[in-house]
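Hi L., both proteins are below.
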Amino acid sequence: MTKDAKSAATIRRRKKCNSFIDFERFKSSRASSPHEQIRQNPEDHESYLFDDEILGPLIVKKIMSSEKSLFFALICIRIVNSLLIQTSFVPDEYWQSIEVAHHMAYGYGYKTWEWNNGLRGYLYPSIFAIFYKILAILGMDNRVMLIKFPRIIQGVIAACGDLYLYKLSWLLSDRATAQWALFCQMTNWFMLYCSTRTLTNSTETAIVTAALYYYPWPLKVTTQQSVRRFLSLAALSILVRPTAAIIWILMCAWHLQTNTHRLPATLKHYFLVGPVTLLLSAALDRVFYGEWTCVQYNFLKFNVLGGGGSFYGTHPWHWYLTQGYPVIMGLHVLPFLLGIWRAKNKVPLLVIIWTIFIYSCLAHKEFRFLMPILPLSFHYCGLFFQNYCKKPKLKKQLIKKDVQNTLCSDKKENVLISNPTKNSTISSEEPEDNKDNTSGVNEKTLQQKDVSDMAEASRKQNAVHKAHLFRAKLLVIFLLLINIPATMYFSLIHQRGTIYVMKFLHDVSYEQHTDVLFLMPCHSTPYYSYLHRNISMRFLTCEPNLKQEDNYVDEADAFYRDPVLWLKSQYAATAAPWPSHLVYFNSLQNELSQYLLQNGYKDCASLFHTHLPEGRVGSHVIVSCR
């Protein structure tokens, strides 16, 4: 082999090695856990959230330097998040959690029809009931503490979910992706709006995320302990909210299918963890229901198999695809779609599609039902940002082509030198030392050409990288400018009247005898959990037709058909005393004002509720008193 051929081969080997450095780093970073990944790899700051070229705040780098500091920061953020919530979202955040807990701890509170028919489990409310008891023992069970403390507890649960998203995304990809995924979750308006509310969906989301981290993924080194943790958390999520089974039907089936060689040992864990957790839940429910019942089965039977959930509203099959999912994702849907396109691992996407498909088959649909799949969605957002912010790789084919062109040109020059034309003055019999000099010049020229090409490619690489970073920064700024104001508006302003009216009634109850009638859609306001006063209260019920009566009309619908006639039938035509306070939306003011004035009522308060009134919900909450 000639010297110039040897030199070219050496250059090709060197450039091939340089071209695959990132690939080799990627392969070595595929650890079975984030901690193992740290041990295997030195810290690489490329495309990290705290990279100086991306966002750069040193405080972010310090927070993310360890899992403990990150978790502490997440708890602080979520507690602040929880304390900012001053509005109502859905009735379940009160009536299926803290209202029941208040009844468990203090002996008074309202339990809706679900609790009288064994459709709800006492596990989730028990968390708040325990803390209510502790506050009572410490003499700190005032109204403010009873409202804020459950939110703080839920904030800590949400922080656990955030941390496990970080660990899960790191496990499925790398640390940079995990940081971006966490950033996307922490800046999503719907997660900021809902994750610290006392909803079973919020707790379900955190538990499902933790269970997915312990899930025996194919590339993960699985231990028996991690399998037990996964199954325990999966079972716990189903106990908190039975619809979590939708996700676990798919994931557990995949787990069993990929572990056929260890099927007996795997099934042993399933048959051990599942029945034990179910038995513990049944024992807790036995204490409060007074009889043995399986609330998870009752819940699924009524809401899913029996279609009872449709009593509270229905939507078309495509609602989650056209409205539900795009709305809760907001602008994050753009990096999500781009992340899917770049991702190699499509299993989390399959979970997302499966969950949306199953929920789309159910008539009753709500935004919050999709919360458990949001962390997986933000993982794909993180993949997009991580890929977009790292330096693009040099094009190996272009470099090889340049080397080949250089070699070809050198060979042509050698042919001209060794085979001169008839008119040439160069002798065909050159000394050997001249040939050596020629090959040395060719090698030097080749190296200079290689350096020049590499420098040009590096300049192009840096230019593309800077352009990507600039666009990523613009997208991050745009996400913040849209999501943060939306969060503040929905958390502090939208639908706040039904919360503020409870403070008004609480203060009034100390000044005079108070009994209240809420003439609003059922469960529009919190109840005793926000009043902490054992006064007489009544609201319009909206129970489904449990007794299968013909021409059944619930109390709320009967009232709204003719409000004045309903009041006459309840009070004027009977000996029942009128309540001291009536609470209703201003959408009824024109119909009720004259009749209430005739019966001695006057407007005592008008509280702003929303800029977006619709249907039976008005823009203000009116309190009439006598």
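That was the first. Here is the second:
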Amino acid sequence: MEAARPHFRFLLLAVSLLLASACAGKKPRPDALKVDDLEIEGTKQVSEGSIKSKILTTDTPWWEPLWPFDKGPSYFDPIAWEADRRRIERYYQSQGYYQAAITSKTEEEVKPEGKDAVKVQVTVREGEPTRIEAIHITGLEPLSEEHRKLATEALPLKEGDIFQEENWSGVKELIQGRLREVGYAEAEVTGEAQVDLATQLATVDLRVALGPRYRFGNVFISTDPNPQVSPKRIIEQAQGAIRKGAWFSESALAEAQARVFAMGVFGAVKVNRGGPDQEAVTVPVVVDVREAPMRSVRLGGGLGIDATRQEARALAEWTNRNTFGGLRRLTVRGRVGYAFLPSFYAGDDVKSGVVGDLTTEFEQPRFLFRDLRLQASVTGEKGLEQAYSFYGGRLRAGVIWQPHPNLSIFPAYNIERFRLQGRVEGNETVPPITLGCRERDSGSSGGTSCDISLSYLETTIEWDRRDDRTEPRNGYYAALSVQAGGGPLQGDFTYIRLLPDVRYYRSFGEQQRLTVAGKLRLGTLVPYRNEETGLRQSSIVNRFFSGGGSSMRGFNSRRLSPLTPLNPDDPETTTVPVGGNSLFETSLELRYRMTESLVVATFWDTGSVSTGSLSFGRNSPLNNRLYHALGLGLRYLTLVGPIRVDIARRLNIGPPLPIEPSGSTYTLPSSGTCFGLGGKKREYAGAPDGLCTIQLSIGEAF
């Protein structure tokens, strides 16, 4: 995740933390008293929490001394409290309780709590609610039955419901928006609600002024002087959502705006309707754009630390968004760093080295037609993993079809070539056959290195309806990756690889503080029998691994995997993950925003990686190799995204991790502790890895 964060991330982080610390906890006056507690008694129909969210006076949260990066303690202001007493009664009225009143006396509501604090306690009498007696809607008579039903179905106001002002305002906006969505661009909804305080009944009258039903007219562009982007290209992109002669709709304007912004060359885009032409019964569309710099440089850095890997890296990216004209994009991005496995203080057992990659990517927009882009890239890479080190490169060429801003389909042809080195630590090595190699290079490496070539077609489909890709709170995401390699495409392996991924987010509450997030990720790799060896063999570079901050958090990075012991006769020997042909991951997470900068979370992760391909029958690896973990987390919201700390404890459900090759004489060591605490044992879920993990990263887990 750190690799995607440029612009001097840690400098921004340090500045934001410094500012937060400096601003927290200042008294408004020397004699100001801290509000230790705020109680609103008598609340039955309206929640105390919703009332507190509408007033200025707040109590100091219990965690305030432990969290200095927020606004600090809350202090009592007598003038603000007098206004809050009126706000409480007014809020009750907005909820339909027009008889509600505060019954406590002002001088009795504020009580001392020690020398420098007070407790505020107010009592309310709610009374009976006012309910809706009748709803009258006029002005919809000219509509067809279909449009009339569309405008009035599932309204937030119903006869017999409590009359709430929020729903009263919302119903007018809702009907107006529905009418404008089917072409009535000038539709207006007005009305009045009559509340009888004596009978506690309300009558709602809504009046609709339809106006003509409009179609889209011409598209006009407002741009910078001497623009580099031709207005014709902007019009063409907007017309993917707005067709001249089609019925006017607000959603089409929003889609057009997203399409133009997705061109990637504008710093600001706004799509609005112009003044309607009542004679032609059309609505012109005005696209207002401001170009961004066509060339940019981004710099950054990252640091990754867990129990199995420590790495520091620097990042750089250069982009020209108008190479050779025509908005052709050329991007060069690089990453260089140094990695230690498992840690820099591991002594003679440490495995370390330079890691990095360099990618050059070219993109041609409007390839053959408007919604199709050509993309080609070449990458050189040097890496270090627990079971092997490698260097190599990959070529990719394909087209991206994006018929909708939220939908993309990317078929591509890929060629990859890697030199794998199976040396792990000291003289201990992983055999090339375990890495999936077919040939050995027994030169100076002593037979521990080999070459792997992959040639495959891959199609990636994404449908992204999240409200925010960095910190989603509502919406969903679905993706599917399909690879088919070898056979007529050559390469060392013939296989099919599937990887679907589904995520869902829903927030609740008046301020949407509680977010429920869920994820399901499956993977299966089906290798075909090799004619030379007669084996169904796969390569370690395209097998599945799990574990880490963005997958199954009950294991460290890539540790949820079949393992290979470096010395099967030594129970204390190092075990390294070699990947599997099946993947199953789920995650259910509850995130609660306690303050504007602090989020707490609890989660339940499950995961499984096995040597066999994924199945759901009697021989499914999920029947006895599905691991579970429960955990708690904290997120500190910053300018560079949420800084996340997750602590997970794996449940003792399931067997030890599988050992490869099968039939090995390796004996599990005594372990099973939680950060070194607790008794040791040999047989437990996920052995030989510890039962507890801690993950530190930037960005949400999913």
